[in-house]
Amino acid sequence: GEDVEQSLFLSVREGDSSVINCTYTDSSSTYLYWYKQEPGAGLQLLTYIFSNMDMKQDQRLTVLLNKKDKHLSLRIADTQTGDSAIYFCAASYSGSARQLTFGSGTQLTVLP
Amino acid sequence: DGGITQSPKYLFRKEGQNVTLSCEQNLNHDAMYWYRQDPGQGLRLIYYSQIVNDFQKGDIAEGYSVSREKKESFPLTVTSAQKNPTAFYLCASNDRVGRAIGELFFGEGSRLTVL
Question: Would you call B58 an interface residue with chain A, using a CB distance cutoff of 8 Å?
Answer without folding.
Answer: yes
